[in-house]
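Sample entry was shown:

___
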Amino acid sequence: MELNVIGAKPLSVSDDVFGGEFKQALVHQVVVAYQAGGRAGTKAQLSRGELSGTTKKFKKQKGGGARHGDYRAPIFVGGGVTFAAKPRSYEQKVNRKSYRVAIRSILSELNRQGRLKVVEGFGIETPKTKSMVAKLAELQVSGRVLLVSEDANEALFLASRNIPYLHVVDVIALNPVSLVGSDHVIMTVEAVKKVEEWLA
Protein backbone atom coordinates (compact mmCIF):
# COMPACT_ATOMS: atom_id res chain seq x y z
CA MET A 1 0.00 0.00 0.00
CA GLU A 2 0.99 3.66 -0.28
CA LEU A 3 1.02 6.48 2.30
CA ASN A 4 0.37 10.03 1.14
CA VAL A 5 3.35 12.26 1.87
CA ILE A 6 2.46 15.96 2.21
CA GLY A 7 4.19 17.90 -0.55
CA ALA A 8 5.90 14.84 -2.06
CA LYS A 9 5.18 11.61 -3.94
CA PRO A 10 3.41 8.75 -2.09
CA LEU A 11 5.52 6.37 -0.03
CA SER A 12 5.19 2.62 -0.55
CA VAL A 13 4.83 0.77 2.79
CA SER A 14 3.98 -2.68 4.10
CA ASP A 15 0.27 -3.60 4.31
CA ASP A 16 0.90 -5.39 7.62
CA VAL A 17 2.37 -2.33 9.36
CA PHE A 18 0.01 0.40 8.14
CA GLY A 19 -3.00 -1.53 6.85
CA GLY A 20 -3.55 -4.44 9.19
CA GLU A 21 -6.56 -5.36 11.30
CA PHE A 22 -7.26 -3.42 14.52
CA LYS A 23 -6.94 -5.77 17.52
CA GLN A 24 -8.67 -3.84 20.29
CA ALA A 25 -8.22 -6.41 23.07
CA LEU A 26 -4.49 -6.74 22.42
CA VAL A 27 -4.01 -2.96 22.20
CA HIS A 28 -5.81 -2.55 25.55
CA GLN A 29 -3.64 -5.23 27.16
CA VAL A 30 -0.40 -3.67 25.91
CA VAL A 31 -1.42 -0.11 26.93
CA VAL A 32 -2.37 -1.26 30.45
CA ALA A 33 0.89 -3.23 30.77
CA TYR A 34 2.95 -0.23 29.58
CA GLN A 35 1.28 2.10 32.11
CA ALA A 36 1.63 -0.48 34.90
CA GLY A 37 5.36 -0.76 34.16
CA GLY A 38 5.74 2.95 34.88
CA ARG A 39 4.33 2.72 38.40
CA ALA A 40 6.88 3.15 41.18
CA GLY A 41 5.38 0.57 43.54
CA THR A 42 7.32 2.08 46.48
CA LYS A 43 4.39 2.62 48.89
CA ALA A 44 5.15 1.19 52.33
CA GLN A 45 3.16 1.14 55.58
CA LEU A 46 3.74 -0.42 58.99
CA SER A 47 1.59 -3.22 60.25
CA ARG A 48 0.68 -3.70 63.91
CA GLY A 49 3.61 -6.04 64.48
CA GLU A 50 6.17 -3.68 62.94
CA LEU A 51 5.40 -0.59 65.03
CA SER A 52 7.79 0.38 67.79
CA GLY A 53 6.33 0.83 71.25
CA THR A 54 5.29 -1.20 74.25
CA THR A 55 2.98 -4.18 74.03
CA LYS A 56 1.86 -3.66 77.63
CA LYS A 57 -1.87 -4.03 78.20
CA PHE A 58 -2.95 -0.42 78.83
CA LYS A 59 -5.94 -1.10 81.10
CA LYS A 60 -7.44 -3.88 83.17
CA GLN A 61 -9.35 -6.61 81.37
CA LYS A 62 -12.47 -6.00 83.42
CA GLY A 63 -14.01 -2.98 85.09
CA GLY A 64 -15.40 -0.80 82.32
CA GLY A 65 -14.43 -0.02 78.74
CA ALA A 66 -13.70 -2.34 75.87
CA ARG A 67 -11.28 -5.19 76.35
CA HIS A 68 -7.99 -4.43 74.62
CA GLY A 69 -4.33 -5.32 74.49
CA ASP A 70 -2.15 -2.40 73.37
CA TYR A 71 -2.31 0.92 71.55
CA ARG A 72 -0.65 -0.44 68.39
CA ALA A 73 -3.97 -1.86 67.19
CA PRO A 74 -5.33 -0.41 63.90
CA ILE A 75 -8.40 1.14 65.56
CA PHE A 76 -6.24 3.68 67.45
CA VAL A 77 -4.68 6.85 66.02
CA GLY A 78 -1.02 6.07 65.43
CA GLY A 79 -1.69 2.35 65.37
CA GLY A 80 -0.59 -0.09 62.68
CA VAL A 81 -2.34 -0.49 59.31
CA THR A 82 -4.57 -3.55 58.98
CA PHE A 83 -3.40 -4.66 55.53
CA ALA A 84 -0.18 -2.69 55.27
CA ALA A 85 1.03 -1.87 51.77
CA LYS A 86 4.53 -3.09 50.92
CA PRO A 87 6.87 -2.24 48.01
CA ARG A 88 5.93 -4.30 44.95
CA SER A 89 6.35 -4.42 41.20
CA TYR A 90 3.31 -3.74 38.99
CA GLU A 91 5.11 -4.97 35.88
CA GLN A 92 3.09 -7.17 33.52
CA LYS A 93 4.74 -9.52 31.05
CA VAL A 94 4.00 -8.83 27.38
CA ASN A 95 5.66 -10.87 24.66
CA ARG A 96 7.78 -8.89 22.22
CA LYS A 97 5.76 -10.21 19.29
CA SER A 98 2.47 -9.15 20.92
CA TYR A 99 3.88 -5.68 21.62
CA ARG A 100 4.86 -5.21 17.98
CA VAL A 101 1.49 -6.48 16.73
CA ALA A 102 -0.22 -3.93 19.01
CA ILE A 103 1.91 -1.06 17.65
CA ARG A 104 1.15 -2.17 14.08
CA SER A 105 -2.54 -2.34 14.93
CA ILE A 106 -2.56 1.21 16.36
CA LEU A 107 -0.69 2.64 13.35
CA SER A 108 -3.08 0.89 10.96
CA GLU A 109 -6.11 2.34 12.76
CA LEU A 110 -4.60 5.85 12.80
CA ASN A 111 -3.98 5.57 9.07
CA ARG A 112 -7.54 4.34 8.39
CA GLN A 113 -9.01 7.24 10.36
CA GLY A 114 -6.87 9.81 8.55
CA ARG A 115 -5.09 10.80 11.77
CA LEU A 116 -1.64 9.78 10.52
CA LYS A 117 0.25 12.35 8.42
CA VAL A 118 3.61 11.81 6.74
CA VAL A 119 6.00 14.66 5.85
CA GLU A 120 9.43 14.80 4.20
CA GLY A 121 10.80 16.65 7.23
CA PHE A 122 9.84 19.22 9.83
CA GLY A 123 12.32 21.81 8.58
CA ILE A 124 12.93 23.29 12.04
CA GLU A 125 16.51 24.56 11.96
CA THR A 126 16.22 27.13 14.76
CA PRO A 127 14.61 26.40 18.15
CA LYS A 128 11.69 28.81 17.75
CA THR A 129 8.22 28.02 19.12
CA LYS A 130 6.70 30.34 16.50
CA SER A 131 8.21 28.22 13.71
CA MET A 132 6.72 25.04 15.15
CA VAL A 133 3.27 26.60 15.62
CA ALA A 134 3.34 27.80 11.99
CA LYS A 135 4.36 24.32 10.81
CA LEU A 136 1.47 22.69 12.71
CA ALA A 137 -0.99 25.22 11.27
CA GLU A 138 0.31 24.41 7.80
CA LEU A 139 -0.31 20.68 8.41
CA GLN A 140 -3.86 21.43 9.65
CA VAL A 141 -3.72 19.32 12.79
CA SER A 142 -5.60 19.94 16.04
CA GLY A 143 -5.89 18.49 19.53
CA ARG A 144 -3.05 16.47 21.01
CA VAL A 145 -0.30 16.02 18.44
CA LEU A 146 2.57 13.50 18.44
CA LEU A 147 5.62 14.21 16.25
CA VAL A 148 7.73 11.16 15.41
CA SER A 149 11.15 11.90 13.97
CA GLU A 150 13.81 9.41 12.87
CA ASP A 151 16.27 11.16 15.18
CA ALA A 152 14.70 14.14 16.96
CA ASN A 153 17.36 16.84 17.16
CA GLU A 154 17.80 19.48 19.87
CA ALA A 155 16.23 22.27 17.79
CA LEU A 156 13.04 20.21 17.34
CA PHE A 157 12.74 19.49 21.07
CA LEU A 158 13.41 23.11 22.04
CA ALA A 159 10.92 24.46 19.49
CA SER A 160 8.16 22.20 20.82
CA ARG A 161 8.69 22.20 24.58
CA ASN A 162 6.51 25.28 25.22
CA ILE A 163 3.54 23.88 23.27
CA PRO A 164 1.39 21.98 25.80
CA TYR A 165 -0.55 19.90 23.25
CA LEU A 166 2.57 18.77 21.35
CA HIS A 167 4.82 15.81 22.18
CA VAL A 168 8.01 14.95 20.26
CA VAL A 169 9.62 11.49 20.27
CA ASP A 170 12.11 9.63 18.13
CA VAL A 171 11.44 6.14 16.76
CA ILE A 172 13.24 4.46 19.70
CA ALA A 173 10.90 6.17 22.21
CA LEU A 174 7.69 5.38 20.29
CA ASN A 175 5.21 3.68 22.61
CA PRO A 176 1.54 2.58 22.58
CA VAL A 177 0.38 5.10 25.21
CA SER A 178 1.66 8.09 23.22
CA LEU A 179 0.06 6.76 20.03
CA VAL A 180 -3.31 5.98 21.61
CA GLY A 181 -3.43 9.30 23.48
CA SER A 182 -2.84 11.47 20.41
CA ASP A 183 -5.48 13.00 18.15
CA HIS A 184 -2.97 13.29 15.28
CA VAL A 185 0.39 11.63 14.62
CA ILE A 186 2.91 13.24 12.28
CA MET A 187 5.86 11.14 11.06
CA THR A 188 8.78 11.88 8.78
CA VAL A 189 9.45 9.63 5.80
CA GLU A 190 12.66 8.36 7.43
CA ALA A 191 10.78 7.63 10.67
CA VAL A 192 8.18 5.63 8.72
CA LYS A 193 10.97 3.57 7.13
CA LYS A 194 12.59 2.92 10.53
CA VAL A 195 9.26 1.93 12.11
CA GLU A 196 8.52 -0.37 9.18
CA GLU A 197 11.95 -1.98 9.54
CA TRP A 198 11.38 -2.43 13.29
CA LEU A 199 7.90 -3.94 12.93
CA ALA A 200 8.38 -5.95 9.75
Notes: The chain is about 35% helix and 10% strand. The longest helix spans residues 96-112. The beta strands are 2-3, 5-6, 11-12, 116-119, 145-149, 166-170, 184-188.
